[in-house]
């Protein structure tokens, strides 16, 4: 067992200054494997106001309007209820998971547990210091899992940044016992090839499986060698979690995947996956894998099998994440154009690049196909100083024949949108803050925005945890859906 470190330690090296406003940021050297496009973790949070601007007045945006610096605006059907400011705004906040009356929020310094029994007044239960970007997070029972995708000196919570060229460097999965919410205990680490940028929990009766997504190998990295054309599968025995280990590395791209540039200019070469969403009730998974989107069968969780694969070499730069609809006949893929550190929600970029791609699933069994239907991008133009692109979101469980989700767009804020008609998606609600900075491109905004038990929770990179209430006739049915847990990348059966 490793003792938690309780004092401040040095974070991973962040990249240099952002490029000029409106231009794509270039890839900067980091201690870990290089990304095909810059990840927000390679950039510094924007300077300026770091605290909440307070609850918003009831003000909507006029067409074409960009709110003032740090100003909060929202549609009439969304009401901001609470904000818990970040304890350390210089540390980037990342993903969210939920269990009972608790929310678990990752950040590049560790994670925070919030009591959300009263959504109007969330309380910090504990903050755990355990540096290692991006600290993607999930929970199951008394176990919490963190992803480390920054090369560290060792697997402890007092490690420091160390080049991936050194064999002794460590990246992978960390496992905590969270039975005592006020005093989580770090109980196990599992090293994985090329680290763990994200992970996806696949539930089972006796064992939990984690699909570990990572990418960008190099001949110079002893623990991240090319070809890196698959995912690591970690098996965690529920009754003996300290025996967790990598049990398989299924190859998903035997042909190497999308070759990227120069064959496909502006498209990332596929060297692994960025994120995977599983739908255990259907034994299905959707993978967002840099230059490819895939649909695969997970009936044998240790050996997932690809059913179909698609590319978009015109408008998609980096396949980032995926969301199934409730009927499992659609998948929404996100494109993280510019790696999350660029201003791509402006008029110059247009409506199709840096957008969501909506795909219908046709056919049955191994004959299922992903068929492109349309793009969705927020209709609100953002300033050239605001990093903005499609990011993490979840379904709002409205049931019936309607498809609605909530989604984070970094400084584009939180968007609620309807994709019932795959060819004509539309925004039906929003919440956003004005630019963090007005003189240069800055990093901030909502990393993840998820719907859980009647409320929207957003983990803002610099502002902390936001709680929103959605009141709309199209989403009223979701308020009756109560869950005891939610790991968004492990989609449940809501109805």
Q: What does the model show?
A:
With 495 residues, the chain is mostly beta strands. The chain is built from no helices and 30 strands. A hairpin with a 5-residue loop joins strand 19 (319-324) and strand 20 (330-335). It is globular and about 55 Å long. Residues 1-38 have low confidence and may be disordered.
Outline:
The protein has about 500 residues and is an all-beta fold. It has no helices and 30 strands.
Main attributes?
disordered N terminus; 5-stranded antiparallel β-sheet; mainly beta; single chain; 495 residues; 30 strands
List the helices and strands and how they pair.
Blueprint: E1 72-74, E2 78-84, E3 93-99, E4 102-107, E5 110-115, E6 123-129, E7 134-140, E8 143-152, E9 170-177, E10 185-191, E11 198-202, E12 207-213, E13 232-237, E14 245-248, E15 275-279, E16 284-289, E17 292-297, E18 305-310, E19 319-324, E20 330-335, E21 356-362, E22 369-376, E23 393-395, E24 404-408, E25 414-418, E26 426-433, E27 446-452, E28 455-460, E29 464-470, E30 485-486
DSSP strand content: 35-45%
N-to-C series of helices and strands: EEEEEEEEEEEEEEEEEEEEEEEEEEEEEE
What profile does the largest beta sheet have?
Answer: 5 strands, antiparallel
**Helicity, in percent?**
under 10%
* Average pLDDT number: 90
Instruction: Give the CA-CA distance, first to last residue.
Output: 40 Å
Radius of gyration from CA coordinates: 20 Å
Per DSSP E runs of 2 or more residues, the count of β-strands stands at 30
Question: Which spans of ≥5 residues are poorly predicted at pLDDT below 50?
Answer: 1-38
Q: List the total number of helices.
A: 0
Structural class, by secondary structure, is mainly beta
- The 3D shape can be described as globular
Major sheet: arrangement of strands? 1-26-25-24-23
